[in-house]
Amino acid sequence: MTENVTNKLDDAIDFEIAEKYAAERRENIRTFVQTNPDYYIAQFDKIGGSARFTPTFNLTAGILGPIWFGARGLWMWALPFLIVETLGYVQVVRGLFGDLAADARERIASIEGTLELRRQQLQSAIESQSDKVDVYRRTVESLEASIGDIRLEAQTIAEQGIWIALTGLIILIIIKGAQSIVANSALEAQFSEWLSDRTKRSGISVRQLALSSLFMVIIVGAAMYHYSFPGQLEMLAKFPTDPDIRLTGILWVEAFFTFCVTQGEALFDFITYGIRLILDALELVFVNTPWIVIASFIVLLTWLTAGIRTAIWSGAFLAYMGLLGFWVKAMTTLALLGTAACLSIAIGIPLGMFCARRPRFYAFVQPVMDFMQTMPAFVFMIPVIAFFGTGKPAAVVTTMIFGGTPVVRLTVLGLRGVPEHVREAAISFGANKWYLFTRVDLPLASPSIRAGINQTIMLSLAMVVVASLIGAKGLGEDVLEALQYANVGQGILAGFSILFCAMILDRLVQGARK
Question: Which residues of 459-482 are buried (b: 16+ CB within 10 A; e: fewer)?
Fold first, then answer.
């Protein structure tokens, strides 16, 4: 008896909790949607009652389309729907009112100008009894036939207008149906996000509705007018520009670089001298040292870091480069790469350490690194040549610009990824800042830092061929020569040498990390 009473009491409590939750949910939906809340309460309950996609029908969303989605803040849905809906409107207006034969008439006008010239030439040839009469006659007949074919084509296209409009109407019906079906589900998903973050957009304000309406009218109207009446409004076909703006920009850029070159000559000479010292030292080691010493050292180092199997493959790669006559150029490439990679790592790791605990400074550095990685290499080679001239120092700087950013990013990522509870435990045991940095942060961040070093080396090696354009020697020179003279064999063999250098360096770094 007591157990039954207890069960009934538990059921009553559960029912009361469920009723309270349902009432709170309904109130939240009213606050979120603001318009027609009873409808959305029923639809959200239907959608939330199943783990699968539950199709519902929202007539208002189907009629207004992207305007409804934009007004509700669902721009990730509004933009794709706007593109497809614009296509449908364009097809309808183009098929019913558009000038479908405009392109054909332009082609006819162009051919008629040529035809008139050929007729005059034919008449002159007939009057002078030239032996080219037949040639001009055949040309005139060919042009007249072409005009006839194009006119038939234009007539056929004009007759297809109703079918083009029908296709657009079908597209509109389909997209309107899709909008009606997915609208409530998309809004319910946004409602779930709004429950955890009340700063997200809710309801429909006049400003949101006006913005989405204006956006759709401009996009759809401009597209319909442009495709239905091509060439009528030149502003839609060509961006309004002024050549003087470009010329002024060119003059400003040239003046800026001229100022930098003249004022910073001593600085650029100092940087070039420092790069030369490192580069000459590495070339002395790799190029002038007997090949058997370098080869043995590389194989031994690979064995110690990555294992005997990798060491055997490294020996085979080195033998390939030696037997095919690429040894000296491969060592020159390694010297150039080593200079760029060493400088990138020496600058990048301390910079990453500094940025890891200073978010504001890293926010300033990030756009600079984005610029370095996204700007094409042939573009930033121009100022490099202006500052450092051509030759190996300029190639080293170009390689550093392209390949120096991963080590900074991954150093920051590794240091920021150190668990806070580990650092707090070390601090609680009396660790000072230096001990915390050297014995806790760096060991835990070392896998990410090593990955950054590996990526810097690989990206630097990818610049071998590009760097050869500004005077860098090595394997890139053979590839560049093969491109210039279409020497397939030489280019492939030199390319494999570059690949093998990359594989050896990759196994050295990856093996040490493992």
Answer: bbbbbbbbbbbbebbbbbbbbbeb
- Mean of per-residue pLDDT scores for the chain: 80
State mean pLDDT over 331-352: 85
Tell me the average pLDDT across 364-384.
Answer: 83
Give 3-state DSSP helix, strand, coil % of the chain, rounded to 5.
85, 0, 15
Domain total of the chain: 3
The pair of three-digit structure tokens given for residue 157, joined into one six-digit string: 């296209």
**Token pair in block for residue 512:** 């040490």
Residues 307 and 437 in one domain: yes
Establish if 254 belongs to a structural domain: no
Domain span at residue 137 reads 102-159
Query: Does residue 448 belong to any structural domain of this protein?
Result: yes
In the listed set 219, 237, 255, which residue is the last one of a domain according to the structure? 237
Q: What is the mean pLDDT of residues 370-391?
A: 81
pLDDT tens-digit readout, 474-511 = 777 788 778 777 778 878 888 888 888 878 877 777 66
pTM: 0.66
Residue type at position 503: M
- 344/381 same-domain check: yes
Q: What is the rounded CA–CA span in Å between residue 297 and residue 504?
A: 12
65/117 same-domain check: no
pLDDT at 3 over 60: no
Q: Hey, how many other C-beta atoms are within 10 angstroms of the C-beta on 187? A: 26
